[in-house]
What we know:
Elements: E1 2-7, E2 9-11, E3 33-35, H1 37-51, E4 57-64, H2 69-77, E5 82-87, H3 94-108, E6 112-116, H4 127-135, E7 139-149, E8 152-159, E9 162-169, E10 172-176, H5 188-194, E11 199-203, H6 235-244
Parallel strand pairs: 1-4, 1-6, 4-5, 5-11, 6-10, 7-10
Antiparallel strand pairs: 2-3, 7-8, 8-9
Helix pairs in contact: 2-5, 3-4
Amino acid sequence: xxxxxxxxxxxxxxxxVRVKPDESGVDLSNTKMALNPFCEIAVEEAIRLKEKGIAxxxxxxxxxxxxxxxxxxxxxxxxxxxxxxxxxxSSLDSLPVAKLLRCIVEKESPQLVILGKQSIDxxxxxxxxxxxxxxxxxxxxxxxELSVENDIVKVTREVDGGLQTxxxxxxxxxxxxxxxxxxxxxxxxNIMKAKRKPLDVIEAASLNVSLxxxxxxLSVSAPAGRKAGIKVADAVELINKLKNEAKVIS
Length: 250
């Protein structure tokens, strides 16, 4: 079994995001970047399947400019076998990304594609579902448990009423939730080995996919500052403020 894991380069979640003065977007200058946390979970799950002898190869793919090769190498250091970089300087939304990934899936013919359910920058939660629709593959989203038996992958997902388990015929698309696993740390020897693992570069233009966006960002602004809390003397005062000031009770 070959597993394909798309990953994304995002701002490190420990970094405080800065908005550009003209509110056209987020300021990325001198900002620490990292592998999207949900993508890390997807990589970890693929590697665990390989360690169990279920998968034979784990392939990492990322779309973006040359800098995203850093995140591909990070995934290779965790135990993946090789990487694919679809190079483009365009800023892409979910649909063009899904179309480019479809080309890679058709080229690589993986039996399983595992993605993070969303990226922490745009938070769209769309690419996995769009990719499944474009390929006409069965999909299991928000996976909190995953198991593979013969040509069936079972995905347990959290829903409003509890847990739901779906059985998908391979090839299939799975998107990962936070509770699926806890990603490992890359060891120094594996970081050094990752530098020698194969990484193929494909120009996005060569895949004959329209990269035009149907989404336009009008403005980006920082969240409003939170007001300081207050102390109340007793329950009567609390109810009065909730009723007359906050107006959350009547």
